[in-house]
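Record type: ASSEMBLY
Status: queued
Input:
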Amino acid sequence: MENLLEIDNLTFSRSGRVLYDDISLRIVKGKTTAIMGPSGIGKTTMLRLIGGQLKPDSGDIRFKGESIQDMSRNRLFTVRRQMSMLFQSGALFTDMTVYDNIAFPLREHTKLSESVIKTIVLLKLQAVGLRGAAHLMPAELSGGMARRAALARAIALDPELIMYDEPFGGQDPISMGVLVKLIKALNDALQLTSIVVTHDVTEVLTIADYIYILAEKKVIGSGTPEQIKQSDSPLVQQFLNGEADGPVPFHYPADKLENAFLGVK
Amino acid sequence: MQWLADIGHNTIDTVRSFGRAFLMLVGAIIAKPQLIKNTPLTIKQIYVVGVQSLLIIIVSGLFIGMVMALQGYTILVDYGAEGSLGPMVALSLLRELGPVVTALLFAGRAGSALTAEIGLMKATEQLSSLEMMAVDPLRRVVAPRLWAGIISMPMLALIFSAVGILGGHIVGVDWLGVDAGSYWSIMQSSVDWDKDIVNGIIKTFVFAFVITWIAIFKGYDSIPTSEGISKATTETVVFSSLAVLGLDFILTALMFGIE
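Status: finished
Output:
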């Protein structure tokens, strides 16, 4: 199987805190790879590293065999046209209608006529079920609709790679079901390569072909959903089963409670 | 020794932020010009920062002109020199009050809005999404706002001065009875094109550039939280106002300094 993206020995730290320590990942072309892990371990940061918005301290991130961190700004911008990102907030432009948001990348990067752009935009909106909302402003959309509109924008240029940043976060069950269905349908129909960053275990197990679980600066588990479910790692099991305490402690590191009350340092 | 370390730390932070501001400016100005795409964006921003500031500029200019005429009249009339009310109002407005007050109002009205808008675009990941769509935010977001500020503010200052002179006329001529002919004719003979009007316009261009630069940079460099954006917006108004007043002294000294 051909890899679209390869990450080797990645180390990254921010504000003196190490987020990743020598980790390696493979993203197979045409497959959906999920990156999971507890909050605060830097899952979104991983997507920003892949997109070239951040540079690693060491290690290599290669998109189609080309090192992202070594690219010039112009080359990086050219490569980014082949990738797309669905932000957690949707990140729709608030001064444009839904239609103009989706037309935006087409107007910026192609010389297509307005009539062709209209056709493409309406098709993308139809795919996410929002053709009737084309004239609305982002502020008039619900959270789930905003994310679907952002998804339509993300696929406007038919990218090879889509990165989903917490696509199910804060969604009601219906919106979540719609998004799961959409992501799956789009991947199958467009043969996209997808990276889904999330901590919604149930949803991701249904759409992912391969899963990486990150914790404590390392990859603590990887494999197909079945392999992950059967993992004997206590850390992986705590995460999958949502246990409050375990290898990832409930309490933030602190002195003993009695010492705090008695003022003992 | 901690205070010494704090001074050093703050100095390094300040120098770094000047460096980032300069790089942002260079990126926005040198960014490959795309006239067809950027002109409509700049026009839209001229509407937002310029046209939408018109009301506050016109109302302020009118009242300042009226107050100056009232104050000037009470002094000049004692010496029988109320005929000089026109040049007094016009010169004060064209040389100083027009550029400076417009700049202060522009910093408060348009500068703070620019900072808040760009800061919120950052907080809601709109700038990041532009980057990920291979669209340079410096070209798409920063450059149109920078040019709009530089184009709009000098025009607002001219409107402010013109309305102020009319305000002076309303109070001086229509209310207090100064002769209309002397109000206008002495003004015409006293106001020098190069020395008064051109110098005033140069001042407004300098103020416009500095305010817009500060406003955009503070938004672009803000910490993307509600507290961070609030702090950045406050800093825009404070730093812009201080920069305008300081630069006004320097420019006045260079333009009108006693030789």
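Annotation: The two ends of chain A are 57 Å apart (CA to CA).
Annotation: Residues 165 and 249 of chain A are 25 Å apart (CA to CA).
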